[in-house]
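Before the break, one more example. Copy the sequence into your notebook; we will annotate it together after we see the structure.
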Amino acid sequence: MRIPVRWTKWDIRLGAALVVFLLIWGGYNLYIGYSSVDPEQLLSEAIANTNKATSFRFKTGSVIYVDGRQETLSRITGEKSKEGLHIKGEMLNTAVDIYQIGNKTYFKDIKDDNWIVIDDNNLEKSQMLMAELNPLAYFTIKDSLELKVMDVEKVNGRWLVKLEMKPDLDNPWLEVLWTDFHYTVWVDKGKRVISKAVLRAREKTDDKTKLELTIDFSDYNRDLKITVPKVKKEVSSDKKIFFLPE
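Here is what the structure looks like once it is written out:
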């Protein structure tokens, strides 16, 4: 026999008041916890821990704005582990699938579904493909100017500290074309790693041309396995090259 439960107006009002109180209390504690953050220390530790990670997955997307018109430069997903690196996506409207295992680079030849193998080559050290192959290259920062905590935001189910700054970079390749850098970085306060970053800059010779790059990191220090792709017929070269889509 079911016993009916009757809710009076006072019961409903009390329940609603309790919910509001818990929300306010939770928000207050969250604010107190993050308002005491030292942005310099948090950013420094996050960059160090991100660089020390044995493995992670990432997504990058870069666009350029020319006279208000948006053009996509690249959309890449990647994973990095002790074994090597793998990226897949599009660059300059060209499909790319690249493995870096040790000092061997494997390029997917889309036309005949085979792999081109380049010996004694390490693309991760190239600054020409920073975001696509090594997004951490964007965080070689000499000084974080105007660094401040902007907010606390929930991203992918976790509360992250949102930082903004105008960095003084140690990256000659990037600084050849671009200037006036502005970074927005979302840091996981508990894990002390970078979860997301949006980088903006403008071209040195044309104020109307602007760059925007978005990087997402995930699965830090997971057991990621990257294995050598199956090569039907090895086409190899001992020349060190830097890949650029045709």
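The chain is about 20% helix and 45% strand. Residues 39-237 form a domain with the outer membrane lipoprotein receptor (LolB), chain A fold (CATH 2.50.20.20). Try to locate both features in your own notes.
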